[in-house]
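Appendix B, record 7
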Amino acid sequence: MRKLTTAAVAAAVCLSVAAPRAWAAEPDPVTETRAALQARGQAIKANAEGHSEAERLQQFIDLYFEWVMNEHPEFATMIGHPTGHDRWTDNSLEAEAWRDEQTVVALETLKSIDREKLQGEDRLNYDLLMDDMVDSIEAQKFLGEYLAINQMGGVHQNSARMLAMMPAGNRQQFENILSRLEGIPTLIANAMVRLEKGLAAGVTPPKVTLRDVPQQVENMIVEDPAESPLLRAFQEFPADISEEDQEVLRSRAYAIYADGIRPAFEKLHGYLVETYIPGSRESIAMKDLPDGEEWYAFQVKQMTTTDLSPQDIHGIGQSEVERIRGLMDKVIADSGFEGSFEEFTEFLRTDPQFYFETGDELLAAYRDIAKRADGQMPRQFGLLPRTPYEVVPVPAYAEKSQTTAYYQPGSLDAGRAGQFFANTYKLDTRPKWEMEALTLHEAVPGHHHQIAIATEMEDQPWFRRFGGYTAYTEGWGLYAESLGEDMGFYEDPYSKFGQLTYEIWRAIRLVVDTGMHQLGWSRQEAIEFFINNTGKQEHDIVVEVDRYIVWPGQALAYKIGELKLKELRGLAKEELGDKFDVRAFHDTVLGNGALPLRVLETQVREWIATEKGEAPEVAQPAVKGP
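Structure tokens (predicted):
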């Protein structure tokens, strides 16, 4: 996979002269749209009509949006745009290579716009686009496109997630679902080509992390199509579709599954078990891949939006672990527990009082916490979103290897609420004392609040509404956990210990991610470091460590982002004194969408200067260099 841009898609503006030869023989609407967009891109660069630089930038942004919708229709579905709901992104290596070429051409077009003639928000938008395209081109040096499957995702999980997200309210929407179902065998075939190329090049996930993937794929293979997680839309139809039409649609879906999808998944399963996993690498470190040290340094830079080295981050992590451990020891002492840290964490891991007996009880408790958090939001924020959210279970086909929880954005345009997914697998690994911090992170005031605020900012360009920088979004999620005490949470020592457990968890990530990928740590060393410094269950820890192994650098973003947010809050309180308003600070942090940390700092410093009645400094370029 290439670097994700602020739009969270591996894309750049399609501006070259010729379409790929393989697509030229029989023009279709997708190809024709490409050609039209190419012509518009050339016109922007030539500027024969003498448009201002601000007008040219807006043309570029509009073109970029249409290109992403055309090339990545799943993203269109996610945000509620009507383009391409009947097809998938072309995931062939040829298509990806072509899109990479267009990124280079797009960068040249963007560079033809004179930044010095732009002002204010236009200049910031230019900088963010330039930053992303430079990164996207740098990512082309590496072979991420071969890493097409792991325990966290791949065609087996991603197709099911997208189909579950698709609207199913009328006949045409069911036709769209059927069309995408027909495309799944091609997605699988293209993914297998990537896997085969990766196997030959020595670019695979570590073998140990793939152990559950065959079962995940097997979960998609059922005798009765009605039981398939891919066909859930056909279990219940809207009332205005006749019973006769319902039967026709359902029969078509079942036939597509039986004749195409199931055989394709069976072939993928056999390939994984017999060839891919046995041939996958034993090493866990990214530095052991081709150009691995440079690749990991790039991942660190991209995920943290900083210039910190892996060694710098490892040291920060060690320091934070030591600091937070001190706070945890104090909570243990204040609780009246007589015993060591290890004995206290064993008590938390094993005592039945800390666990629910059913998944429904767990979900109900999460919903109760979320409702209590909703009531506290006006105390922390002036701006509240309109998009609702819900608490739902992690799908059964993925729950064994999935993390404790995650968030999926909603869309007012698509009529879809945000979703906080809670894992109900192995309830004896889902303690009550972690639930408050986790809810604040994933729902409100964490991911749902931040992402919904961004998507509802209709005055901002699309890539700032729907995009993201991991250090910002995950940094905000971790920062949101720290707001719990001000919102009436963590009142008992166990929940407070849970909050600190989650904070030290993110500090541990700094140590073990850099340790494994750069400094030679083994997987077992990482697991043991985790066990020795937190109360989390070993199953959860193993899942987490394996996640860090297959997503190098991603786990660094949480703590680095949170530390920057706390630094900026401290700066604002120091500078503004009695004039400091936490609601205004939070609205400032969230009010421009997700930003690189260096750009966020500039925005906050400008807000501080304005609050003090001073003239803010002129912002410097946000780009790393054209």
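Remarks on this record: Strands lie at 389-393, 405-408, 418-422. DSSP finds 24 helices and three strands in the chain.
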